[in-house]
Amino acid sequence: MTIKVRPASLDDLPTLLDFEQGIIKAERPHDHLLKPDPISYYDIGEMIEAEDAEVMVVEVDGELVASGYAKVKRSRHYTSPDWHAFLGFMFVRESHRGQGINRVLLDALLDWSRQRGLTEVRLTVYPGNEPAIRAYEKAGFENYLTEMRLGLED
């Protein structure tokens, strides 16, 4: 098995759009506020071309099997550091889960973040998404802030 991590290109867009729908499908049970399909979370083409972001893909034996991005974001004005990397678009094909692919992808995104002098990395994950939470905790992430909501119905 040959694993290669590389920046995504616009040629990868059809597969990346499929990955995005895989993410939405996986997250839909955790968020009843998601609008009915079709929806999209990201402008992936714009992120591929952005200077303050890096979309990365993982190939296994020439097949795209995973994606993720790191984006430079300004932190809240009252927290340090002033800037951090935000990770998103994290997806691994079901057929390749449990093989360490997510860790390889995370390492590449963390390296990209370090190369930009960033000292903090953040991401969001739904509270009920236990497999993702375990994977991020295994990589060293800690719960930082819990966002809560209250729906006000008429």
Automatic annotation (TrEMBL):
Keywords: Acyltransferase, Transferase. Residues 3-154 form the N-acetyltransferase domain. The keyword Transferase applies. The keyword Acyltransferase applies. It holds the Pfam family Acetyltransf_1. PROSITE patterns: GNAT (PS51186). It comes from the Bacteria. One of its GO terms (molecular function) is acyltransferase activity, transferring groups other than amino-acyl groups. PANTHER family: AMINOALKYLPHOSPHONATE N-ACETYLTRANSFERASE-RELATED-RELATED. This is GNAT family N-acetyltransferase.
